[in-house]
Design a protein that fits this description.
Length: 601
């Protein structure tokens, strides 16, 4: 027989086909020669090797067969998936845990339950990770043993976005948190009002998030980790301040001794000057010295102990200016009030405070008023009113209010301050006024005629003109360039008395004329100058169908310069001038109902 193997046992060459029933020489590693011709090989070796090969084949076959299925009797978070393929097990887990996974997570925050949606919170199960190692080919004996033994028990694996969960916990629990409330004390109407402190509660978002991440989805209900925040001002501080300060303050009136006289001030009068503030965890009272002094002075005035000084008054007796004497007043030195009265307010005994009395001098003394007493009429001016009863009545009311006004030397008269707001309650009617270049109706319409009349009286008196505003367009009944509109509260007519004496105003309506006279000490002879018109502009024609329309007659717009020449004893001393600008007054034709606000004409 040919030896077809080389020294390493490899086949040397192919002997070709062999006849007979036996196997080919290359079917096995060793040739099938008689054992006596194969030195070193025991007769049972082939059988052993064959057995090993058979067992190996069975082992591999079992591994291949079992790798496609989840081990029998396997449960993941209570869901049976034994014997299923990988995909079947994934679906079974999704279906079996759906109720727990989709159910909202509830968090108890000190008895208040809030709900968190799992999707919103970034909570999800990881079926792939949960089935890891339960399927798939493995030759490891331990894996094969566990697979065929079965009975695997696991918890579902989760996939959690920590930041998203943190945000959801913070958002949903915010409404259940509460801020601490400091205790407080205040005074109201002479009584003590307290606010009791309240502890706050905050959620430890990180710790609560970790609880949810660890327990979900096996657990859907959690208790939040919370922290109590204590108020800065507790009950002890409130009670101490009420007992030691507040109750004493409101326990009764304080007697104020002012010189030889005395009066009482009640708690309700002085407590508005008190505020309560924190001082290092305690409460303390802060006193507004000005408010406390004002309250004490007001109480003294009501009791007749404090008497304000009275200025001398200058008024007409018939057509003669006369003086009513001034009076010295008695007041309280306000700097002496706060410390003394506060000590008495917190005293449990006599509750008496002594304050210093002061002498109050009038601003306008009798001597000053007599020295500056008007001697003569220094200027007068009259304008004429168109027929319009409501408008005329407005001028009558305003002239009556202005009449008798006295302007001491160096003082300023504000016509708005004298007249106040023009309202129906004061008897004013709605009448035409100019608003944004158009006529409309408003309460007090027409009193700009009184303002213009006063302006011209001031103009010729030589007094200092502080503020005036011409009408937006020219009105022919007024002197060209010399007129002054007025509107509450910021379009005013003001002048300062810089003449040699006091000025007493006389104003009245007679027939269709309104007159203003200024009585004082003649200081200047004044003449007016006026330039020709320039920058002339033509009006437009407007047809207005809106409600409240007021018709207008057209007039051109222009500019003009007005001058004052000041003379004394026949000699010119100085001059002044100003420019008045008018817009065109458009021709307005109303085609609807009539019916506004603005400066009066």
């Amino acid at each position: 027989m040919r030896d077809d193997y080389d020294v390493d046992g490899a086949v040397a060459d192919d002997p070709g086909p062999r006849h007979g029933a036996g196997p080919r020489e290359d079917d096995v590693f060793w040739e099938t020669a008689p054992a006596a011709e194969r030195p070193g090989r025991a007769p049972g070796c082939v059988a052993v090797l064959a057995g090993i090969a058979l067992l190996a084949g069975l082992y591999v076959g079992l591994a291949l067969l079992g790798g496609d299925r989840v081990p029998r009797d396997t449960r993941i978070s209570g869901v049976a998936v034994g014997g299923m393929t990988h995909d079947e097990a994934k679906q079974a887990l999704r279906d079996g845990l759906a109720d727990r996974v989709d159910a909202p997570v509830t968090v108890d925050v000190d008895g208040k339950r809030v709900r968190i949606d799992p999707d919103e919170a970034g909570l999800a199960i990881d079926t792939e990770a949960s089935l890891s190692g339960l399927t798939g080919f493995s030759l490891a004996p331990a894996d094969l043993w566990h697979h065929y033994r079965g009975g695997v028990r696991r918890d579902i694996e989760t996939r959690i976005d920590e930041q998203t969960l943190t945000d959801a916990v913070e958002k949903r629990t915010a409404s259940a948190e509460r801020r601490s409330v400091d205790g407080a004390v205040r005074f109201s109407g002479g009584k003590v009002v307290t606010t009791q402190p309240v502890e706050g509660l905050s959620v430890d978002t990180t710790a609560t998030r970790d609880r949810i991440a660890e327990g979900w989805p096996a657990v859907n209900s959690f208790t939040a980790t919370t922290e109590v925040t204590r108020p800065r001002i507790g009950k002890e501080a409130v009670d101490a301040f009420v007992r030691d300060v507040a109750e004493r303050v409101v326990s009764g009136p304080v007697t104020i001794r002012a010189g030889a006289r005395s009066f009482q001030v009640q708690p309700a009068e002085v407590t508005p000057a008190l505020s309560v503030e924190e001082e290092g965890g305690a409460l303390g009272a802060r006193v507004d010295d000005k408010k406390l002094a004002a309250a004490v002075v007001a109480a003294g005035e009501r009791a007749g102990v404090v008497r304000p000084a009275q200025d001398a008054t200058v008024a007409f007796t018939g057509r003669t200016p006369t003086v009513t004497p001034s009076k010295v007043g008695h007041g309280i030195d306000r700097a002496s009030v706060s410390k003394s009265v506060w000590r008495a307010m917190t005293d449990t005994g006599a509750r008496t405070a002594r304050v210093r009395v002061t002498r109050l001098e009038p601003e306008l003394t009798t001597a000053q008023a007599k020295a500056d007493l008007p001697k003569e009429k220094i200027s007068t001016f009259t304008t004429y009113m168109p027929p319009n009863p409501p408008r005329t009545e407005n001028i009558v009311i305003a002239a009556r209010t202005l009449d008798g006004t006295y302007v001491p030397r160096g003082k300023t008269l504000s016509l708005n301050a004298v007249l106040g707001e023009r309202t129906a309650a004061k008897g004013y009617n709605k009448a035409p006024v100019i608003n944004a270049g158009r006529l409309t109706n408003s309460y007090g319409g027409g009193i700009s005629q009184l303002s213009t009349t006063l302006f011209n009286a001031v103009f010729f008196s030589g007094a200092k003109i502080e503020e005036f505003h011409p009408h937006s367009f020219y009105i022919s009944r007024y002197p060209e360039g010399r007129e002054a509109t007025i509107s509450w509260p910021d379009v005013d007519n003001r002048f300062t008395n810089d003449t040699k004496g006091g000025i007493l105003v006389r104003s009245f309506v007679s027939g269709n004329a309104v007159t203003v006279e200024l009585w004082g000490t003649k200081t200047w002879d004044v003449k007016a100058t006026k330039s020709p018109r320039r920058n002339i502009r033509q009006p437009k024609r407007i047809v207005d169908r809106s409600p409240g329309c007021v018709p207008q007659s057209p007039s051109e717009g222009f500019e003009v310069t007005i001058g004052r020449i000041f003379s004394r004893d026949g000699k010119q001393v100085r001059t002044s001038s100003f420019v008045t600008r008018y817009i065109p007054e458009d021709h307005v034709v109303c085609a609807g109902p009539t019916g506004g606000g603005g400066s009066s004409d």
